[in-house]
Amino acid sequence: MDASAYRLFAQEKLGVNFKDIELLITAFTHRSYLNEHKKTVSYHNERLEFLGDAVLELVVTEYLYNTYDEPEGILTNWRSSLVRTESIGAAATRCGFEPLLRLSRGEKRGSERARAQILANSFEAVVGALYLDQGYEAAKNFLSETILSTLKDILASGSWMDAKSHLQELAQSQETATPVYKVMNEDGPDHEKTFKVGVYVGNKLRGEGSGPSKQAAQQKAAEAALAYYKA
Hints:
Blueprint: H1 3-14, H2 21-27, H3 31-36, H4 46-67, H5 72-83, H6 85-94, H7 105-108, H8 112-134, H9 136-146, H10 151-157, H11 163-175, E1 180-187, E2 194-201, E3 204-211, H12 214-230
Antiparallel strand pairs: 1-2, 2-3
């Protein structure tokens, strides 16, 4: 993909004309791509990701502080929900990042989980590139449209809360019972296990989830149970 595609992306999705288009191209360049194109590519996006992460956190923190008169703990949870991997990865998907990613052949065949992380990282890198090329206000405007605009739905759904904590509140208020998590299955070698966990409320199975650790599987099970209560 040539530079014109990235210029068009900058104009249509970022609302700017990039001065240094190579900076934006680097934001989409995964380390693995560099390993396969050492003669033609010199940089990958990890330094830009480092910078963009800081800009993202500052923009979100500034917005929450100026907009809401809430205790620190509440604001911290709201911020976490806005900047977590799932949120920024989803924003990258909505903005059409995936076709612009420069990945190795192996990474292109990677798992869905790995691709989600790459998208989230590239989102932060793009924010970093936008900040360097266009300044803080341009980065802030982009994040206002792609990240801050999702807060209303996050607050309405209660997804800013930790899934297990949210489930405990719902289960106790609706069924006067505390959720209990049980491992239903373990699969795979010790270094790459997948756990399947069920969450029971009043001895009734309310959700199941799988993950690379018991804690991750419990979170997925809690999310599934939350969907049951909201159905």
